[in-house]
């Protein structure tokens, strides 16, 4: 059933809703479309509106990224200003890769936003590097500002 709450939930989770694709559900939420206008069959003008809003989001997400620039794609996947229907598949792939290639690496805490936090010494061990090497690499890549220094909530 399509209503304001289900549209919001689908948009925030990156899911489709009934006959709406994930991109259409997010676009309907973003454009504040009334649920009655999303009934099937949708008017052609509504389909075009949703496609236009979705295309704008895709352009903002993918635009300006050089082919093969995985660092920027990962950065954008974690950037919450972009919709989950675009970020979600990348985040899922990253999660699967972490589980496959680093099965013993587990988050030791979460931050206030619920994001997993890993201890630097655990990351270094999993990667076969020293903590100093990882810190130097983070600084070289301009990622040292992403290192957690704020309080975290330890997992048990």
Amount of helix: 40-55%
* Large-scale geometry: elongated
Q: Which blocks of ≥5 consecutive residues have pLDDT under 50?
A: none
Beta-strand percent range: under 5%
Counting DSSP H or I runs of 4 or more residues, the number of helices is: 7
Biggest sheet: strand arrangement? 2-1-3
Topology pattern, helix = H, strand = E: HHHHHEEHHE
Distance between the termini: 39 Å
Radius of gyration: 19 Å
Largest sheet: 3 strands, antiparallel
- Coarse structural class: mainly alpha
Task: Report the count of strand segments.
Answer: 3
User: What's the average pLDDT?
Assistant: 92
Overall tally of structural domains: 2
What does it look like?
By secondary structure, the protein is mainly alpha-helical. The protein has two domains: 1-101, no CATH class; 104-156, no CATH class. Helices cover 53% and strands 4% of the residues. It is built from seven helices and three strands; from the N terminus they run H-H-H-H-H-E-E-H-H-E. It has helices at 4-13, 22-30, 44-62, 70-77, 84-101, 120-127, 131-140; strands at residues 109-110, 116-117, 153-154. A three-stranded antiparallel β-sheet has the order 2-1-3, with no helix packed on it. It starts with a helix and ends with a strand. The model has no long low-confidence stretch (mean pLDDT 92).
């Amino acid at each position: 059933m399509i209503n304001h709450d289900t549209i919001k939930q689908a948009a925030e989770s990156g899911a489709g809703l009934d006959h709406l694709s994930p991109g259409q559900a997010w676009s309907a939420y973003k454009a504040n479309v009334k649920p009655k206008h999303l009934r099937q069959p949708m008017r052609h003008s509504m389909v075009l509106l949703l496609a236009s809003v979705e295309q704008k989001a895709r352009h903002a997400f993918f635009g300006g990224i050089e082919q093969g620039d995985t660092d920027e794609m990962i950065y954008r996947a974690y950037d919450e200003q972009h919709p989950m229907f675009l970020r979600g598949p990348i985040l899922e792939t990253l999660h699967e890769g972490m589980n496959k290639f680093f099965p013993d690496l587990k988050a030791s805490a979460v931050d206030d936003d619920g994001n997993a936090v890993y201890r630097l010494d655990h990351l270094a061990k999993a990667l076969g590097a020293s903590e100093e090497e990882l810190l130097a690499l983070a600084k070289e890549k301009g990622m040292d500002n992403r290192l957690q220094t704020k309080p975290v909530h330890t997992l048990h």
